[in-house]
Structures are given as structure tokens and as C-alpha cells.
Design goal:
By secondary structure, this protein is α/β, with parallel strands linked by helices. It folds into 2 domains: about 1-15 and about 85-195, Rossmann fold (3-Layer(aba) Sandwich); about 15-80. The chain is about 55% helix and about 10% strand. It has a 6-stranded parallel beta sheet with strand order 3-2-1-4-5-6, sandwiched between helices. Helix 8 (about 150-160) links the parallel strand 4 (about 145-150) and strand 5. The mean pLDDT is about 90.
Length: about 200
Amino acid sequence: MIYAFDFDGTLVDTMPALARHGIRILESTYGLDYNDASTCYWGSIGISFAEQLEELFPGDEKNEEAETEFWYAHLETYKKVTEAMPGAKAALQSLIDRGSICWVVTSSPAALVSAVCARVLPSELKVLGRSVGPKDKQLRLCSADVFFGDAVRDTLFARKANVRFIGIGDVPKFYGMGQEAATTLVEGLNLAMQEAVA
């Protein structure tokens, strides 16, 4: 079985810090108030910040500078990661020990993600990143059977790649979309394993 995982918000708890940075940049660079900036940021997650900006402010000359500011903040956020989501490291190691292949598919640069993975997750975890293309392309490249993610947009990537999706985190959000979901990654993996055995 080949498992694929989103990174931010699924394997590591970086989304609160990244959201703070993204929202602050939307406020200071584009003049949005906090509520609008928050709605714009959270409504467009699942893709790189550069793609978010282009989606929100097509062709705006401020996009490049805003993206650069975000990536410096992103790098600082990643430097502070000291552990994976609760139970994630042990669960992934258990899958790997059983012969499963585990991939990270992410809209972040693979080198940044790999550095965090080396500190807090099993060394056998393979990482793709935004240089490969969008997450649906990454899912096809790694031949994933199941994809775990925390963003609504992740469901669309899974659908485009024809991969089973299990949402992690906001269960009602995913159920409302007709998707399987679990509160934690460990619960999501148990759900996937139960159905694989059945």
C-alpha cells in the first residue's frame, strides 16, 4: 500500500504559525482588514502562498515581495518544529515497518520539508514538493492509494489523481463534502487500515 500525506497541518502543526504570517502579510501588503485577510488566507490554503496570492490578486506587482516575505517566515516556522503531530511518527514508522511506502506531497519546497522530516519523522519517508507540480501530479507520480490532508483543496487534488482521500482535522467540514474524515492522523490511518483489511 502506498500512503501519501500533506505536510503542514497533517504531519506537523505548522498551520497556526503559517496562517498568522500569511494573514499579517495580506493585511500589511494589500490593506485587508483582519477578517477579510483571514477569510482569504484560510479559503485558499492547500497551494503555495505564491499561488494563493496570484489567485487572490492576479498580476499584482506586490505579489513577489509578499511571497518572499512569507517564505522567510515559513523558513523560520520550520526551524522551530520540534515534533510531529501526536502519534504521527510512530504510526508512519509502523506502516513503513509493514512494507508500506509513505510519501509527503506538499505545496512547500521539498528541501525545506525534508529538513523538518529528518528531525521529527521516520527517515524512510519520501518527499515530493512544489517543484514537481501540484499535489495531484505528485499523487500520480508516487502512485498513492490513499491521501491524507487537512485542506478542502486537498480533496480536489485527490479526486483529480483518482486517489482515495481521508480528511484530517475538521471532520464536519469533510463530511459535509461527502469525504471520509478523522480528527487525528492516527484515527485516519486506523480508518484506512480497517478498510484495507476488510
